[in-house]
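Input record (one chain):
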Amino acid sequence: MTGGAAGWHRLHPLSPLVRSGRTAVGVLALIGISAAGGLGQDGSRLFDGIAAGLVAVAAVINWLVTRWRLDGATLCIETGLLRRDSRQLPVTRIQAVDVVRPFLARALGLAELRVRLAGSSHTDGRLAYLPEQAALDLRARLLAAHHGLDPATPEPAEAILAEVPAGRLVGSVAASSASLVAAALVAEVVLVTAFPRVLAAAGSSLVILVLVLAPLLWLRISLEYGFTVAQAPDGIRIRRGLLSTVAETVPRQRVQAVRLIEPLLWRPLHWCRLEIDVAGSPGRDHGEGTSRVRKTLLPVGSTSTAWPLMRLVIGAEPPPLAAPPPRARLKAPLSYHFLAAGHDSATAMAVTGRIRKVTTWLPLEKVQSVRLVSGPVQRSLGLATVHLDAAGRDVAAEFRDRPAAEAGRLAGELPALCRTARRRG
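The corresponding structure, as predicted from the sequence alone:
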C-alpha cells in the first residue's frame, strides 16, 4: 500500500498477481498437459498463451486505475478505465467488514477487505488486495469510526463461543450421505473386481468416485476447516478455511431464522449442524436468493453447544412446543415422531423431518406472511398447516398438521403478534 496525493492509496503491487494467478495458472497447466501429451495444435497453444497474457494485463490495468482513501466519515474507492466507478461508503452505514485471504494471497501476506452497508444486498466495496496487517488496521479504523470512536481505537477483543476440531469435522464428513454413496461405490468396485465378466463396471464407478464425490468431500473440509465462532461487538464473527481463509461478521439483527439439523448418523453422537438465514449480502460459499443467504453457523457440534448459540443469535428462550394430534400419524407416518411446534410473544419454533430432524426457530418480527394450508388428506382428518414465512425462499416455520380449529386460531393470532414484535423491535 503506497500513499498518494490528498490521502489516496493504491492496492499492493502484487495484487495483479493474486487476481490473475488462478486463471493464468489454469491456462498454463492446460498448455503443459497438451504439450506433454502431444495434444492440440500450435495455433491453439498460442491462443491459450495469448489468453493467459491478456488476463495478466487486465489485472495490471485494474491495479493501476484503482485507488482508495478514508476521508473522515467516508471510505472512497475509485476504479475503472473506460467506465469510471467512484464509490462513497459512509462509515455510519457500514454493516460489516470481512477479511478474505485466498491461498495465493496468504502466501504473499495479502488480504482482501469487503465492506457491506446496511440495507444492501451485495458487497458494496472491495479492496483486493492489501497487506494483511494493513487490512486488519483499516478494518479496525472503519469499525471504530462506525461506532463514533476515535479511529485509533483498537478493535475490541472477541469472545470465542465454539471451535470445531479437525477430527470432528472429518468424522462428520465421513458420516455424511455423500460418504455413504462413496462407500457403496467402493463396495461395488470390490464386488465387480471379484467377477471379471463385469469388471468394466468398476471403471465407471471409480470415475464417479474420484471425479465427483471426492472433490465434494474435500471442498467441505477445506471450507470449514478451523471453523471458529466468536461474539464481537458488531455481531457474530466466523473464521474458517484451510487453503483460503475467511473472517466474516454476521450482524445479529440481520438473522432471519436459525436452523438446527440432526442427520440420522449424527444423532447417536449427539452431533448437529447450525445454519442461519441472513438478510442481504452473501458470503463466499453460497449463492444469494431474493433477499437472504444461508450461512453455516456451526458445521458440526454437540447439541449442548448448539442450543446456547441459537439462544444468543435469537436473543430469547425457546417457546414451549406441542405435538400434533395422534390422527396426524395417518397423514405423516414417517415424520410424526418429530413433528412439534410452538410460539410465544417473540419467537416461533417448529420441528420437522423424516430421517433428518430439523428445528427451525425465527423471531416473529422477521415474519412477512402467515399462511394456512389444508390439503385433501388433511381436510379429511380435520387438520391444517400454518406457515410463518420470513424473507427469502424456504425460510419458514411450519405448524404442521395441527387440528383445524387450532390452525384457524393461529392464523388469526400470529399476525397480530408479529406486528407487535415489529413495533417492539
